[in-house]
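Reading a protein record of the kind used here takes only a little practice. An example makes this concrete, so a full record is given next.
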Amino acid sequence: MRMLSALSLVLVAGEAYAAGLDLGIPASQATVNVRVFNTANGTVVNNAHTLFTPNLPGRESVVVPIYSFLVEHSTRRFMFDLGIRTDVLNFAPSVAALFSGGIIAIDPHKDITELLEDGGIPLTSIDAVFWSHAHFDHIGDMSKFPNSTDLIIGSEMDTNTFPDFPNGTLQASDLEGRTVTKIDFSTANLTFSGLKAIDFFGDGSFYLVNTPGHLPGHMTALARVTPTSFISLGGDTFHHVGEARPRPFFQHNFPCPADLLEEARTAISTDFFWSALSREGNFDLPTRFQQLFAVSDLPDSFYADPVTSQVSLEKVARFDADPDILVLVAHDVSLRDTIPYFPAYLNDWKANGFKQANVWNFVNKTNPAFAFSPINNGTAS
């Protein structure tokens, strides 16, 4: 009887979500092109708990890519986030201490400005840079861009700079000599999945979206890459896709491949994760109705407001479950080895089945995002 009840719950959930959700995005034929760079790979050393929980034994460190996006609108070019500068000890002291103290380690890498120029994109052709927020792994080194490149930020972002403010994370060189535009979402007249949005170009091709919580002024973007498909540039709405997945609507639209379902039974530890039809040592993924990980709310969390962050994440998770929207957060390691990097375009992600083929990578034991079982003496248990 218990099994029948649980199965009924699954069927009811499937019926409830079968029609999809209207996110309120106006129709348009206008589009932008989107390309992605992995500017660096970094390790949060023994501090994965500052990003998400639970943090299982042996998985105290987490490796993440740091993505930066080139957005092209007609003849204009924009960057959404810049990744991390190469000379990390020249950040403001409060940030540089994360590297000198061994909390964060960064692999050798090129600055996004070098990557752009290597790819034949002159820096003078970049009209503006959008910062999703002011964390060090998103702001790059703006001083390397010409003053003709504007900076666009959320209106609530803290723009106090070191040394005038000893604990400031920004420096004067990040802002000076260029036009800085602050996006005020209180004026927004659009709402997508409960999130306020502004039509940046006025033609429906690119929306800035208010996703508060991670840091004051945190914003994301929704790029229309074909008339009916989108890429959500998710910033740090979440750091691991296990914070957004699975959920009933997501599982309805993107059923987990049979081989990964079977592997998950023993790969995902039932000491830390459970679902309606799970048994000891046998995890049942289809009946897991909430995400596997949660936003960190510990005292040293990288999320300034974990409660508000979780609400924003819930709303973006509706994007993630939509077959017409590809959500790309800034540090999704599950896609690091499969996403097509610059000079490739991401616009045809839906036509080529990219989302369908990759959204469950994170539960594959061989994927670098897999973090759902303890590691004992170097071996997953």
The first strand starts at residue 33 and ends at 44. The CA atoms of residues 4 and 10 lie 10 Å apart.
